[in-house]
Amino acid sequence: MKTKTAVCISGQCRTLNKTYASIQKNVLDPLGDYDLFMYVSKDAYSRYASLLQPTVIEAVNDHYIDEGDLVNWKNCRLKTGVRPYLQQLYALKMCNRLRRSYEKQRRIRYDCVIRCRPDILFLEPIENIDRLDLNYIYLPDFHHFDGCNDRFAIGNSENMNIYFNKFDCFCEYVHDFLKKNGVPLSAEMFTILHLQQNNIETRTLPVRFNRMRAHGMTDDLKKTHRKAKKVA
Questions:
Q1: Cα(202)–Cα(141) distance, rounded to whole angstroms?
Q2: Is 139 exposed, middle or buried (0-12, 13-18, 19+ CB in 10 A)?
Q3: Residue 23 pLDDT more than 50?
Q4: CA separation for the pair 149, 12 (Å, rounded)
Q5: Helix %, strand %, coil % of the chain (to 5)
């Protein structure tokens, strides 16, 4: 039986007009049977989401998220800054909510759930997804820094619910990690620790992509490859 898959894409669509063809060709088309859920920022670029013909789409204005006592480079270490990262986590949660609501309405359950960013430029097709052991969450096998590459993930519905709901526990992780380790928490550390704490094992997948920024492509594949590791 062909695996029924949900693909969840969230974030800004600023460069989706340059990446949509690679997402369609290398991720969506090989799946065959899939539904696409998109939760995107409502701005001048959100119209690009229609290029992928999503099953369900919600375009919303980025709302204010209180940073609380989070201070970048003091108790957390986030390349994007605190508020943009919190907005990213919130969008992940809301995109997954669209998917779960659709499941409930249609009385279906997805075998496989994929998290993808709209700014990813895939270089080759992702093959044999229906052969993966989805008791694991699969993460890209490159650009791990000090935790894991958190730009793409594949897993079963139950495990991906936990992956998508990172927003709910980020602040707690920041303080616990600093207290335990004496160093600020990075996004890559947070993702892998969150999965480990929830007893979700990970494997790597030889997926190849770069990021398409507003100013041009960031060639992540040329940077040092590092394996996922435990940071505890």
A1: 11
A2: buried
A3: yes
A4: 19
A5: 40, 25, 40
- Position 200 scores a pLDDT of 97
CATH number at residue 55: 3.90.550
Pairing of strands 76-77, 112-116: unpaired
pLDDT by residue (tens digit) across 138-180? 999 988 777 899 999 999 999 999 999 999 999 999 999 999 9
Give the structural domain span for 211.
5-222
Mean pLDDT in the chain? Answer: 92
The total number of structural domains that make up the chain: 1
Closest CA to 60 of 117, 7, 12: 12
Do 191 and 147 contact (CB within 8 A), yes or no?
yes
Does 32 reside within a domain? yes
> Looking at residue 51, what is its pLDDT?
98
Residue 227 inside a domain? The answer is no
